[in-house]
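Lab notebook page, bench 4
Experiment: in silico fold of construct C2
Operator: M.H.
Input chain length: 287 residues
Purpose: comparison with the prior construct
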Amino acid sequence: MTIAELFSTLAKRAGVQSTALDAILSNPELTKINIEETDANQFAENLMNVEQAKSNPDVKKFWQGTTHTTIKGKVSTLIDQFIEDEAIRNELKANDNTFELIPSLVTKIAELKEAKYSAKGKDKEEVMKQLSELENVLKQERAAKATELDGLRSEFKSKLSDMSLNAHLKSYKYGTGHSDDVNIIVARELIQKNLRDKGAAMVYDEGSGSIKLVNANDPSLPYKEQQNEVDLKSFSDRVFADAKLLEIPKAPTPTTPPPRTPMPPQGGNTMGVDTSREKAYLEKMGG
């Protein structure tokens, strides 16, 4: 595989399209440089776009592990805080399976509810106390789990949004003379400032996998100008053009056609005068 083929494949995967990149990849010199298939495969296997990351087992394992560890830690804290009976605490905390931890709390609550109806006197008071403790743990754990999952979902969505915005900004050809990293930082700040000034905001749409512009005061509404919806690209195009951030294409050099050489008239008459009558008179006099 050539370097040109490798970078073309990676660019398509990342969704990067620009005339500048096309010009680079069309350089015939890049087709002369080969890369080992094993190295090319490493790039293909280890570099992922957003959609591939969503279904990657290693990424899934990482996020699930983080979520399970957090949930188990919070459940254990709540069990220690609300359940006084050491035997019940140890029984519940002995379960290492996070998915089974919440159901085990529900099962224990059901057992205590059953015992509540058959217990009497002090036994009943103790069962009621344990039941109340477990119900409090379950209620708080459900709330904590929902909060934790919302936080992880928000964090992941924020990363996807950042990746999508970077890909969008990298598609432009800047004319500042600075590095790409500096240009993207400046471009990002310009976009955000202009959005704030216009009362607009960016949100990541999971359905389309792209960024949409919405009303900052009501994100359920699209951002509009003169009653027309505005997308990120058209907004960026205008902002960057106003800021003179983009490279200005050079106008083609006009070509001047060579001057035309006038053709001499036939018969050696360089003046272009009709001399036929004079020729006839001379021939008559000579005859």
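Observations: Strands lie at 200-205, 210-215, 218-222, 224-225, 228-229. The chain is about 65% helix and 5% strand.
Next step: discuss at group meeting.
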